[in-house]
Design a protein that fits this description.
The chain has 15 helices and five strands. With 335 residues, the protein is of the alpha/beta class. Helix 2 packs across helix 14, helix 4 packs parallel to helix 14 and helix 6 packs antiparallel against helix 9. Helix content is 48%, strand content 8%. A five-stranded parallel beta sheet has the order 2-1-3-4-5, sandwiched between helices.
C-alpha cells in the first residue's frame, strides 16, 4: 500500500522525489536519430519516447500495464445552486462505471488499460467553501493518502480522471487561487450551465477564493477543493515516487493538481495533459502550467476519457521507438 510521508499538506515541498533520468532520455533521443526515418519526422512522438525514457529510467521504455484511476466526490458548494444536476448523479454514475456502461469503460478497454473507480464518501459532501473551508487539513490529508494508496506501483503509466457533480466550480476556484485572474476567466458551462448559471458560478468562485486568500497553495486545496481533487494530488505524488508518468485528463483533473503546480512546478514534471478540454479555462490553465495537451477533440466529459483516448498515442510512440529498425540494421544509407 502506498503512503506518502506527509505530516502536513505543506510538507509536500520537502518530499524526496525521484528526478528525471537525463541519461536514459538522451540515449532514447540518440536512438531516435538512428531510426529509419528523417530526423524529427515523427514529431512529438519522438519527444514522448524521450519523456517516457527519462521517467521510467530506461532508453527502451514500454507500456505493458496501464492503470486508469477515476476518483468521485461530492461538494458542499452545491448548496449555492451552481450545479444543473442533483448530487445523486455522482453515485449513479459510479454505479454506471461499475456496470461498465460509461464512456471511460469503453475507452479504457479499447486502449488496453485497467480501470479502477474510487468513490470518496459520497454520502458526506465537503463543506460549502463560501461559508468556511471545504475540508480541514486532516480530511484533506486523508483523501490525499487514499489517492496515493490507489496507485498500482507495477503500472508503466497512470491515467487520471474524476467524477463529481459541482466539481467544475471547484476546478475554477482552484485554478484562480493558483494562477490568478478573475473568476470569469476560469468558469465554464460544466455539465450544462447557461449564461445565468455561469454568472452565478463566477460569483461563487470569486467569493470562495477571496474568503480563503492568503493561505498556502496546499492549504487552498483543503479550503476550496474536494476529496477527489485531493486524491488526484495524492495519486500524482505516489506515481512520482514510483517513477510512473501520468496522463492528466481535462480541465477538472488539471485544475485538481494546480495547488501542486503553484507549490512547485517540478511536482508535475512527470505529468502530461492528455487533451485540450472544451471548457474555456483549460487552455489558459495548460499555458500557465507550461504544458501542451496531446489531443484536441472538442471533448468535455471528464471521467478520464481524454486520458484513455490519448494512451494509444503514447503506445504508438513507444512502438515506433522500440520496434523500428536503425539505418544500420535495415541496411539503409543514413544522412
Amino acid at each position: 500500500m502506498n503512503t506518502l510521508p506527509l505530516a502536513s499538506l505543506d510538507a509536500v515541498r520537502s518530499l524526496d522525489l525521484p528526478a528525471y533520468d537525463s541519461a536514459a532520455a538522451e540515449a532514447a533521443t540518440a536512438r531516435q536519430k538512428e531510426l529509419t526515418k528523417p530526423p524529427g519526422s515523427l514529431g512529438r512522438l519522438e519527444e514522448l519516447a524521450a519523456f517516457m525514457a527519462g521517467w521510467r529510467g530506461t532508453d527502451r521504455p514500454r507500456i505493458d500495464k496501464a492503470q486508469v484511476l477515476v476518483f468521485a466526490g461530492n461538494h458542499g458548494v452545491c448548496a449555492q445552486g451552481v450545479n444543473p444536476f442533483p448530487q445523486e448523479v455522482t453515485a449513479q454514475m459510479v454505479a454506471n462505471f461499475a456496470a461498465g456502461g460509461a464512456a471511460i469503460n469503453q475507452l479504457s478497454k479499447a486502449a488496453g488499460a485497467d480501470l479502477d473507480v474510487i468513490a470518496l464518501d459520497l454520502d458526506r459532501p465537503t463543506h460549502d467553501f463560501t461559508t468556511g473551508p471545504a475540508m480541514d487539513e486532516a480530511e484533506c490529508l486523508d483523501a490525499l493518502q487514499r489517492g496515493a494508496a490507489a496507485v498500482d506501483r507495477s503500472a508503466d503509466i497512470l491515467l487520471l480522471g474524476e467524477m463529481g457533480i459541482g466539481n467544475s466550480t471547484i476546478a475554477a476556484a482552484l485554478a484562480m487561487a493558483a494562477f490568478g485572474g478573475t473568476a470569469p476567466d476560469w468558469v465554464g458551462p460544466g455539465t450544462g450551465s447557461d449564461a445565468d448559471g455561469m454568472s452565478l458560478k463566477a460569483r461563487v468562485v470569486a467569493a470562495g477564493v477571496e474568503k480563503h486568500s492568503g493561505l498556502s497553495s496546499m492549504m487552498q486545496l483543503a479550503a476550496l477543493g474536494g476529496r477527489e481533487q485531493a486524491a488526484l494530488c495524492g495519486a500524482v505524488l505516489a506515481a512520482r515516487m514510483a517513477r510512473i508518468p501520468v496522463l492528466l485528463d481535462g480541465f477538472i483533473c488539471t485544475a485538481a493538481v494546480a495547488p501542486l503546480a503553484a507549490t512547485d512546478a517540478e511536482l508535475l514534471a512527470h505529468c502530461l495533459i492528455a487533451h485540450q478540454s472544451r471548457e474555456p479555462g483549460h487552455r489558459k490553465l495548460a499555458e500557465a502550467m507550461g504544458k501542451t495537451p496531446l489531443l484536441d477533440m472538442g471533448m468535455a466529459l471528464g471521467e478520464g476519457s481524454g486520458a484513455a483516448l490519448a494512451l494509444p498515442i503514447l503506445k504508438g510512440a513507444l512502438a515506433c521507438h522500440n520496434g523500428m529498425a536503425t539505418f544500420a540494421e535495415a541496411g539503409v544509407s543514413g544522412a
